[in-house]
Amino acid sequence: MASKYTKLDHHDDGDDDHHGEALINENDRTLHEDKIPAKDGGGKRDHHADPLRIPNSGEDDPAGLRRTMWIHLMVLYAVVASDSVCLTIITPFVPEMCRSVFGFNEENVSLASGFLLGAYSFAQFISSFVLGHLSDIYGRRKLIIIGLLCSAISTIFFGLSPWYYASLGLRLFAGLTNGNTSISKACVSDVTAHASKDDRAVAFAYFGAAFSLARTVASGIGGITVGILIFGYDNPYLLPCLVGALFNFMNMLATFIYFPETAAGTSKHAKDGIVASLLNGLQLIRKDKLMVKIVVVQSINSFCNGSAILQLVLLQTLPIEYHGLGFNALEAGLGYGFFGLISVIFQFFMFKKVLKKYGIYKTYVYGCVVLSLGTITFPFGNLVYWMSGKQDLIEKILTWIIVLISMSFTGVGFMACLPVVGTMISNAADPERQGLTQGTAQSVASLLRAIGPPLSGVIFAFSVGIKFPFLLPWFLGAGYVICIIIMRTLTEDERDRIAEARTISEKEMLIVETEEDEDRDMIAEEGEEGDMHPTRIQSSLSISPSPSPSRSPLSPSLLQSSLSSSSG
């Protein structure tokens, strides 16, 4: 009886005890077609040390993500939600904390608050690509757990800190030790390595939705729980920090119990040393023109998105005499809540249909168009007041109609763009360097996300001074147009590459291409001599043209055939 397992890798020395072999069940697929070290003496494998095994999608649902895969994706969504909570739960009370606890005067509160809120993203800019690279070498699971633990601890101590610089240091520490957004993206890439391109994009879309939903909920919790005293301490800021820390601790426990290692730990990178392999990986990413384009697009997108959210708040609360909307706190909250609601509805109920109809490339380009329209049209809500000179009920209703239409465009564009650009990076990346690639992209995006709000605040302040609120929206709209222009420069091969996930590394691709080139050369030489054996002709004719690294990935059988011939 034939074995139900198929051998995927062939080793030069044939020593299975040393190298192990990647086995694929007829009903189960390995997440990685990579070597799994075998335990001496046939003992049980460590569930958390091996690459994740996922069930086959089956004939009835060939492109669907299966239950096991979704369980692990849910854990990852909770992890990225924890990152969002750590980032935003302190936002509602930081200005007041700077006044009452740290003693800043009113002129310096906004500057001090900006540094506290931006420190986390700035620290992630420094650390994300390093932590992503370490996850490629040592595995992702343990680094996620460490990041959650450090975030929880730093959030608790932030609520207890009576000193500004200590609080600033805690925010920097949290950002330096937590690269979970980029590492979790790499995990999503691992978990969906064999899913259809649509399902992989949907998985990344839900990733973005989890972050956005957590950001909205965390800000609300931070605002609601501040001022509630607990444990007899006269500290109104402790409870929201404890809530955020508890959420991180719970997800750390869930990761420890339910989430296995998805990266085997690529020792072939580690053997040259961490620093050397890191620099080599960054050099390869820099030389990849497509990857550079996508990272630039994602970074501009992140910059504009962070500034667009700030614009929504500033324009809503700006007095009408300065050509703002003049909303009070409740109206501004309702507007922001509508924006979040539209974002979530589109993500969960419409995104997959749009993606299936238009594909990854067009979905992103159309999303940028919608984002640009929403950003540019938002200040026009004040035109009703300008033209009528009145602020009666009819003018109020017309203003809200314009605002809600604009926010709908912005919310849809938000959720169409960032998840898709994350999928494009994942598809184009070398599977052996997913962590480093996602970390590098996250680092650059974090830097621009940290710079965006202060720069946009300066532009907005200038526009308020001249009573012309269109400068910032036009500036951000131009940013989205630049993203469209960059995407339009992609060649057909590059568009194919971002649409399909790669399942083999650069090194394996090179082996396959070299072997096929040698076979073609041999065909040509033997054809010229006229003495080609019939079986050799048949074998040669069966060779398919070699796909370039920018095309869709090679099948395991073709890879195995080429690797076997090279080892022979």
Order of helices and strands: EHEEEHHHHHHHHHHHHHHHHHHHH
Task: Give the amount of beta strand, in percent.
Answer: under 5%
Strand tally is: 4
Low-confidence stretches: 1-65, 509-513, 534-568
N- and C-termini, Cα separation: 27 Å
Number of helices: 21
As a whole number of angstroms, the C-alpha radius of gyration is 26 Å
Query: Which class best fits the helix and strand makeup?
Result: mainly alpha
Could you give a short account of the major beta sheet? 2 strands, antiparallel
Which geometry do the CA atoms define?
globular
Fraction of helical residues: over 70%
What is the residue-averaged pLDDT? 74
Q: Give the strand line-up of the largest sheet.
A: 1-2
Summed up:
Helix content is 71%, strand content 2%. By secondary structure, it is mainly α.
Ordered list of secondary-structure elements with their pairings:
Elements: E1 5-7, H1 16-19, E2 23-25, E3 28-30, E4 53-55, H2 67-88, H3 94-100, H4 106-138, H5 141-160, H6 164-177, H7 180-191, H8 197-225, H9 238-258, H10 267-270, H11 274-287, H12 289-317, H13 329-377, H14 383-388, H15 393-428, H16 434-465, H17 471-488, H18 492-499, H19 506-529, H20 534-541, H21 556-567
Antiparallel strand pairs: 1-2, 3-4
What does this structure look like?
With about 575 residues, this protein is an all-alpha fold. Helices cover about 70% and strands about 0% of the residues. It is built from 21 helices and 4 strands. The strands form 2 sheets. It has a two-stranded antiparallel ribbon with strand order 1-2. A two-stranded antiparallel ribbon has the order 3-4. The longest helix is centred in the middle third of the chain and has 49 residues. The N terminus and C terminus are likely disordered.
